[in-house]
Amino acid sequence: MEFGPLLYALLSVTLLYFIISLPSGLYRQKLRHIPTVGGPSLPIISYYGAFRFLFHAREIMQEGYAKYKGGIFKFSELGHWRVIVTGPKLVDEFRRAPESVLSSSEALREMIGLDYTLGLGMIHDPYHVQVIRSRLKGDLGSSFHEVRDEIVASLNDELRSGSDGNWSRVPVMKMAYEVVCRASNRLFIGLPICRDPDYCALNKSFARDITACAKVFRITPKFLKPVVARLLPDVSKGIDRGVRHLEPIISKRLRMLEDLGDEWTDRPNDMLQWLIEAARGEERTVRALVIRVLAVNLAALHTTAVSLTMALFYLAAFPQYIGPLRDEVENVVREHGWTKAGLDQMNMVDSFLREVMRASGMSTGTMSRIALKDYTFSDGTFIPAGTHLMTPSGPIFADDTVYPGASEFNPWRFSEMGDQGDHVKLVNTNVNFLSFGHGGHACPGRFFASIKMKMVLAHIVMNYDVKMEREGVIPRSTRIGHICVPSTRAEMLFQQRSPHSRA
Ligand code: HEM
């Protein structure tokens, strides 16, 4: 069967369905009392705003924030209105609202079409979140050195061609993805699978397939979703491929656990083992565990690879900061070696990464929620059940009253001592720093992400000179709605430093 024409036909039906049904739906949502930006709020022509949003999300967010800062505004996205909650007081209320009222899992369900991709087990029993939260917060124990080992090995592989003393051109996003995938899976499952090219390729394509499905599901009306699901990239084939890689390992571990129970003293200390031990009932099967491993990768890889890519772009585009970073890393490593305690002392590296997250404008909005019940904010704004909400992370980052000189890239912004004599760390969340969310659902993997990104940046400044393909120019990112991806083609130049120029 030819799927292409059928898919187009379905999408046309979908579009027609929206044109006819959505404006009335919008009005049913009783959101008329909330001011609109980005386009008209009248039926049918509100679609103009929804299409504009695809290409001008940042400007629309900015416009709403400038007009209604401290309050609440809305704009049209394809399929629904998006309500944005601004100002420290309301954002704090927003993050404190219980899951049963402003639901993060319902937003996730819709965002990645869970019903048709990974299944609802992810939200009915999100035990992986608890595992990540409890196991990845501290110093990672002995795994710290394994992760560092994998980072060094993968950087050596990726930057190998620079070893002859010449500058080598490296596609940064591809390199960041590879390093993050190998380092993460060294902790998730260990050697040798973390280096298996097909396993790494699977994790990358799986994320791409889910994202592709999610984009289509977002604009597909409920009644067409089961049909559309059959025409999209087959997520279950990706799961089958994961099963082929992991089945022998998981089956063996399940057997060992059954036979030895607590007497299994030399059990592996990795994510897969933690997941196996935390899984209950139906979740403790090979396929369900494979889905969980793929889901953890889905949450961990793209986010970290994007942030790391942007950090490397900034490093190369602002070469004046390489020297101070290098001094800090060399001093710390001399005193503490490559340890978690040492990494904690790298305040400039930490601040550099946090400032890139702020200044790079990658994030327009975070903390997507769907209201399951009616809710009224303290300013009197009524939010009916069914409303899609978010916080304006991007406009806050660009707000001069929150971040003085916001348009400037100031890499030491967060390492300079605050009033309390404290540094603000990369992993700290607050109402003005929402890249990892804030509150009960704040990213539980951010401590691990921070360790990986700091290790990579520190290793690179210590061992390589870098420059941008076009001096001082940060490659343009691609934006569609809330999604922002760094240039996947942009290359950076790396040159290995000679041993005597290193401390
Ligand atoms: C720079 C890297 C990362 C960024 C920017 C990031 C960002 C985020 C954001 C914005 C959220 C949603 C917060 C909310 O809705 O309130 C989130 C949730 C989550 N992240 Fe991350 N993340 C990163 C790395 C990771 C890593 C490495 C892992 C896993 C090891 C991970 C696992 C998760 C999980 C499981 C959730 C869902 C938490 C929940 O539902 O309670 N993330 N992340």
UniProtKB/TrEMBL annotation:
UniProt superkingdom: Eukaryota
Alphabetized UniProt keyword annotations: Heme, Iron, Membrane, Metal-binding, Monooxygenase, Oxidoreductase, Transmembrane, Transmembrane helix
Cofactor(s) of this protein: heme
UniProt keyword annotation of Oxidoreductase present: yes
GO molecular function terms attached to this record: heme binding; iron ion binding; monooxygenase activity; oxidoreductase activity, acting on paired donors, with incorporation or reduction of molecular oxygen
Family under the similarity heading: Belongs to the cytochrome P450 family.
Positions contributing to heme binding: C443
Transmembrane segments: 6-27, 289-316
Entry annotated with the keyword Iron-sulfur: no
UniProt-recorded name of the protein: Cytochrome P450
